[in-house]
Amino acid sequence: MIIPKHAKLFVLAIACITLVQTTAKAQYNTAKPWTFWWWMGSAVSDKDIKHSLEQFKQAGIGGVHIIPIYGVKGYENQFQPFLGAQWMHSLAYTVAEARKLGLGVDMTTGTGWPFGGPNISEAQSAKKWEYTGGQFKAVTTGQKVKRSAPGGAGFVVDPYDKNMMSHYLVRFDSAFAGKNIPLRSTYNDSYEVYGANWTNNFLDEFKKRRGYDLRSVTNIFLDSTNTPLTRLVKMDYQQTLSELLYDNYQVWTNWATKHHQLTRYQAHGSPGNILDLYSLATIPETEAFGSSNFNIPLLRVDADYLAERQGRPNPLMMKFASSEAGVAGKKLISSETCTWLANHFRVSLSQAKPQVDELFAAGINHVFYHGTTYSPQDEKYPGWLFYASVNFGPTSHFYKDFPLLNKYVYNCQNILQNSKPDNDVLVYFPIQEIWADQATANAGIHQLDVHHYENWFAAHRYGKLSKELAQKGFSFDYISDRQLNGVKINAGKVQTAGGAYKVIIVPQTQYMPPATLQHLLALGKQGATIIFDQNLPHYPMGYAGFKENSAAFEQTKAAINADKHFTISPDPTAALAQHGASQEMIAEQGLSFIRKSQNGKAVYFISNLNNKFHGGWVKLSRGSGNVVGYDPLNNKKFGIPVRYSKNKIEVYLSLLPGQSCFVTEDAKGIIPANAKEPTAYQSYALNTNWKLQFMGGRPDYHKTFKIDTLQSWTTLSDTAAIYTGTAKYTGTVNIPANVVGKKDLMIDLGTVNESATVKINGKTVGTAWAIPFRLSIPANVLVAGKNTLEVAVTNLSSNYMKMYDKQHPEWRKFYDANIVDITYTPFNVDKWQVMPSGLSTNNVRILYR
User: Fold this and answer.
1) Residues 6 or more apart from 63 whose CB is under 8 A from it?
2) Which of 187, 272, 287, 684 is the most exposed place for a label (fewest CB within 10 A)?
């Protein structure tokens, strides 16, 4: 039986969804955050594997992703060659012990990155073209696996030759043959194959796919003046590479499915349509590299980070992974999270939370920390570390509070994974606009990098339009030509495997595949609402038969102009509202959000990653008058005042910069409609003399100080200046009865470096680790009159490492990159400023209302 191509894609998508949902639900807790787990030299032992997994479990981690990398000097005799007998034993032991603990295990299909290794010869490696003697010639790029582990070194596999991918995977078939090692998922890192733009059979593939011989238009292809014909030929060239890349990685995903494994795939960076490449994976994965420089008071951003060189995270880039999953109906969308958030020893949990919130608002729901490094129990401080920060492992200064971040992530992901996206708009992704821009091509190709998206995304109209849609509160997903082929129209709605959309919007584009324009016409005739931004596309793609195709293209355009289901608008956002697309005004109030649905009820995740909004009425496009709030930070529901404005629900949110919450439609609303907004908090300053006691830490320090003004404890003594650990502030404060008698009480600690556990009258109130550093005070904890306040603060390890690194430079004993700083230059603590520690400002207070 012949199955239509789009039907095959639909069936494959449903199969992938079923597999990921069944596997995750049956065996693994995906709501908990997972972590990258680097095996340095794979010098691992059963004893320390078990100990590490138990630590992960206790901390609230749901699973690990094993990445074998380069080793540690002095441990060469313990190195285990990748896929060797001892290595396979260690993997099998890890999976077995993890399953006992309820943890999942993923694994990179290789070592370091990208794919390649000892079974790839130079002839099988990545290629580029040269034109010599009137002929195209394939020559190796010479690229080898980066950060490879013992047994994993070698050339990078040709990414455009599916036969080479099959050959590469034979090595894994041999290693796993006869073994039952139930990995959850196999993994492919971001595309970092540089300069590769050819493959041995490229000319044959080009002719088969494009309908003409590239050699027949050599002069046009080699022309550098960017004529219209040159653009057409070079677009055909890039489209061919994109299709070959898709076919190549489909071999990998099919191989994984055959072996009952899911796939996690970072398709970004590829010289192809990343939406289509993401579609190959059961779990598409983006990454958050660097810090987003949020305008949140008290949030520290590492001043050494070079944004102009390394870029900053962008939710519009993250949406490529979540869009593919939304269109396909996949449950899990993952992210490499907090990579290089700041230098080693200088990262706080309060810096991590906003980055995680940005991912959640962009549609990500399966966080993988970047990351933790396997380190033997008896290894001296700070243990084995991978060069790229952040260290989420047990030697991190924030590790004792790490379960609090993990609980927060769990509380969020438990909702986000069990609800469906509720987006109204599909934004067509015109990749041909990128391919037509030869001025920004590198080696004749465009690599769609999430770090440097200025040329391929932000500079183009579709990027600007996407930004405008997000700023104006329209919820949307991107969709590719290939994905459009799988949609159906049902009662005017655009139906995909993942949901129903109200409108397709086509950003302004010069070129479009003729088949796509014809398909859009067909969808419009079936009842779809389609908006063209500014104008219809000018030209068909494809050099072959361009004149004939142009005539047919014009006929299709004329039919579109005559059809009422199409709108050509100079103001597409206004047209969207006219055609029923919902606009969330909360975006214009400076809030980040994602709107989802659960059992037909509206679910909003809202995060304040700005300093524009502090509290006020927020209009929602979905939901009835019965809503409930949920604070994932403390796992508590709360009532929300509600009113109506022009038949739209409005809720009152008290959401300070750095805070987040869920607002959920609920038939059992806690507060009825038309409830009044809350009164403002009043403040009572807790001015007192403090006793500050150092509690061991590094170095072992127990001195006590009496202070009358709160300031960084680094000013108190030479040892305090280098101390890392916990110090406890104790003071007696008088609180009047009119404050104690209020129902809503909170302690605001002001500036905290970096986390603080609070006790009042011997009763633990909680730990403040996220901005703003506030904790609710339970009833009957405060008393009128004297109250004893204890605040145990834990700082960074940065100040200690300034001293330790000079005295013990031997801790930096790793091969390859060893340890570098955030600028990828040799690790150097001399330039580090002393970081403030403790309660750094004299503004501790009680808030009451």
Assistant:
1) 28, 29, 30, 32, 34, 35, 98, 103, 104, 105, 106, 184
2) 684
In whole angstroms, give the CA distance from residue 282 to residue 265.
8
Asked if 614 and 296 count as a contact pair (C-beta separation under 8 A), the reply is no
Tokens of 244: 């070959």
Q: What is the residue whose two structure tokens read 């030209």? A: 539
Interatomic CA distance for residues 814 and 237, integer angstroms = 42
Q: Residue 88 burial by CB count (10 A; 0-12/13-18/19+): exposed, middle or buried?
A: middle
Find the helix or strand (DSSP H, E) in which 203 lies: helix 202-210
756 lies in some domain: yes
As a residue count, the chain comes to 849
Burial of 123-134, coded b for 16+ CB within 10 Å and e otherwise, reads ebbbbbbeeeee
User: In a 3-state reduction of DSSP, which class is residue 358?
Assistant: helix
Q: Quick one: 654 and 640 in the same domain?
A: yes
Stretch 610-618: mean pLDDT: 96
The total number of structural domains in the chain stands at 4
Compute φ and ψ for 165, nearest 5 degrees.
Answer: -65, -45
pTM above 0.70, yes or no: yes
Q: What is the mean pLDDT of the chain?
A: 94
- Which residue segment(s) compose the domain that 478 sits in? 425-578
Q: How far is CA 352 from the centre of its chain?
A: 12
Q: Which residues pair with 753 in a beta bridge?
A: 838
Burial of 823 (0-12, 13-18, 19+ CB in 10 A): middle
Residues 437 and 543 in one domain: yes
Both 442 and 567 in one domain: the answer is yes
Q: Are 624 and 665 in contact (CB under 8 A)?
A: yes
* Residue of 245, 309, 236 whose CA lies nearest to 271: 245
User: What tokens were used for 3?
Assistant: 């199955």
Determine the pLDDT at residue 666.
83
pLDDT in tens, 540-589: 999 999 999 999 999 999 999 999 999 999 999 999 999 999 999 999 99
Question: 385: which 2 tokens?
Answer: 């570390």
Contacts of 658 (CB under 8 A, 6+ apart): 296, 297, 298, 299, 350, 353, 354, 608, 609, 770, 771, 772
How crowded is the C-beta side of 411, counted as CA atoms within 13 Å? Answer: 19
pLDDT, tens digit (0-9, with 9 covering 90-100), for 786-818: 999 999 999 999 999 999 999 999 999 999 999
